[in-house]
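hey so u asked for the seq, here:
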Amino acid sequence: MTSPTKAEGSGPSVALDPELAATTEVVVPKKLEGRSPGQLMWQRFKRDRTGMFCAGVVIFYFVIALCAPLLTAISGTNPYTLYGQDPTYADDPVLDDFGLPLGYLGGVSGDHWFGVEPQYGRDLFAMLVYGMRTSLFMALGVTTLLMITGVIIGMVGGYFGGRTDYWLGRVTDFFLSFPQQLFFIAFMPVVTSFFVDPREETPTYFRAVAILIVLWLLGWMGMARIVRSTVLSLREREFVEAAKVSGASPARIVRKEILPNIVSPILIQFTYQLPSTILTIAFLSFAGVGFVEPTPDWGRLFAAGAKVAEQDPAFMFFPGVALVIFILCFNLLGDSVRDAFDPKSGR
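ran it, structure tokens below
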């Protein structure tokens, strides 16, 4: 008779039936791996179909803006040629005797996919994709500056408190006291007149820099207040006190302990701030103090369309639909990002 086998180990020996041992599969438990907050957020975000769709739309807009030169090369147009006045295109007129587009829906045709601009005959498709390029990348640069400035000021005031927080708070209140829309209109000509002779035409790049400076100076306060309030609550938490007791420097505590815990409000605020900045840039151009002829811009398209709204309402259709879709999708994306970071706030 075969003697029973014994399991090896440091504990007491246990007799095993040889036949049972041969047929028993040893199950090795899997190693449990923790997931970071970023991974959890991404998993929740992927389950949100609205958020994923809106993210795809937003990425599509930025790709269109980035590929504007390629798209206009495919369409065979550009945003600067006056197809209604250039003698080169006299054999293929796009405007009638009153300066209005020939054809349906503002002159839509195989050569001009979205129609043409009244009076001048510029191609609307080329103007729109280049206008998106101008507005989106300007807004991206301005929003990034706003976020960086607001985060720095909010973290410094919230962490150090005392006199530092008091004086930074008064500076924030001072900038908040300005009526923004009115100040945008009044301050833009002042900024440009400091560096450019009023009798000379202001270069486009300088207008872009002036818009960036004005929006930056008057836009960082909201982010600073959000970060300050969050840091004020975090600096009293146990992990921050433990870091202080261990001898960590303030810079290390802010970088390693506090900053990772305010990524959520920063990212959520960014998704709300960018479409707001796009609308502000469009407003400046619409009011005549932002980008001007012949620079393509979303706001300038609306300004031109407003002048001919009764004669050619179709001119506003494509720029208007494109702007509404982008703003709506970006705002919905912001809601989805907020819900992914904080499931308890779900709609």
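The beta strands are 5-6, 15-16. The CA atoms of residues 61 and 181 lie 27 Å apart.
lmk if thats what u needed
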